[in-house]
Amino acid sequence: MSSSAISVQGLTKRFGSLTALDGVDLDVPAGTVFGLLGPNGAGKTTAIRILTTILRPTSGRAEVLGHDVVREPAVVRGLIGLAGQYAAVDPNLTGRENLRLIGRLTRLPRRRFRPRADELLERFGLADAGDRTVRTYSGGMRRRLDVAAALVPQPPVLFLDEPTTGLDPASRLALWGMIRELVGIGTTVLLTTQYLEEADRLAGRVAVVSEGRVIADDEPALLKERLGHTVIELRMPDQDRAARAARVIAEQLSLPPERQDSVLRLSSRDGSTLLDVLHLLDERALTPRAVTVRESSLDDVFLALTGHHAEADGTP
Amino acid sequence: MTAGQLADHAGVRAAVRTRERLTAPARDALAVAGRNLLGLVRVPQLLVFSTIQPLVFVLMFRYVFGGVIGRSLIDVPYVDYLMPGIFVQTAVFGAMNTAIGLATDMQTGLMERFRSLPMSRSAVLAGRTLADLARSVFVVALMTAAGFAVGFRLRSSVPAFLAAVLLVIAFAFAMSWVFAVVGLAVGDPETAQAAAFPVLVPLVFASGAFIPVNTMPGWLQAFADHQPVSHTAQAVRDLVLGVPAASDVWRALAWDAGIVAVFAPLGVWLYRRAV
Asked: Are residues A263 and A220 in the same domain?
């Protein structure tokens, strides 16, 4: 038996004339977290839907723990948990009833799913709200319940489609902690995200997806090394000085910055880039009005990989 | 969970085999039905308004149109003619909830979760139609009480009346499958409601449910004489009036069986491909 938990080859999905997935290959080793990073409409959710047997692929192969999702969907469904992009819980049931329903439908014995539901409510900070109908929950509480529902049967492979979208920072950290813990006991997690930081913190490997294709597939550290992990933004007093500064930096440091009006943007691999740039500008008396140093965003990665920005509607 | 459990596919396979047993789909369907009934209890206003509407029909036909219709009728008081029609109308209108419920589950993403679970493929639909069946029993009981309150009198026996009620409920169940297909086909509750209306209005009003069809123009009679609402209303009426009912009852049951035979597989097929 191979050590791949998820294995995907040449996966393609067309909806009429629209190609949502275009020959995707993925290999996720068992017991790891794999991140699918991409903007809205890149095909992340389509990939998850195929892997969870909800959609059939147009062509290509996909296996979960060695079981083909098209030929053995019933076996695959017994091995996976799914938390989708929308909180798929029943608003008319209480949190506890929702979790028990999933326990019943995944054929757990009552003596197992009842304590399991209580335990998950506790872990996700929903113990006090467990007997209220979900209708009264906040968006973040619903999301947490949705993820808890995916965990009821203790699946060996877990699919999380943008699990932290709409979560407050505390809940996000709690969920990250829980994901790490699951991986610690051998669970394989495939998660999609629009946040580079999230993929970086959690995933051992990241595939960047754009327009249905995998355009990079690497360890986050290596990806960052290739793409630069911080972005330096220099706001110059005017466009003329911005143009001169861009020219100097490109010539002297062989780092061509991107210029937008009077703002220069360049990615750096370490602190020396920033020092070099500032020295250089000081020498030429080109003092920036403001300097910003920030983490690379998904958009920066996209720019570096594809030469164009991620979809404009990709919420930052 | 231990790492050892991860490799234990044999256990999952056995579970998959286990669920092929006959009881598993029924248990799944009951779990989903229970969930739907809980929803009904938690949103009582839905139940209240969906019972007020048939009550309004009872009062309207009994007291507003009843005078005119009753005069041009028949050898029985109009209220005794009317109530069987009301029962059947209630069944058809109530079945619309099946469309709305399924469409809501599709819109909220719950359907997607169900489709990723190792549960029976028919359970979501069967659970929904079963819950709507339980609802029909409640509403028919209420309509019976309302009927007696406005002067309806049973002219046959109690067993015959119970048979009539069962016939109404069987028809409600069959119509649920029709509306399950409508709900799955459109996928959102507002559209489901709008789409269901033009299906049920001709069925209910171009029928013998409230008036004898012989006052309708010929082309409409041709339709009204050969559709399930007319046939079911006639069978129910035979049973409560105490006239020979066997052939009408068989015809109504044949409709129920035929409708389920066509729409249940169609519904399951739509469920499998719907997202």
From this structure: no
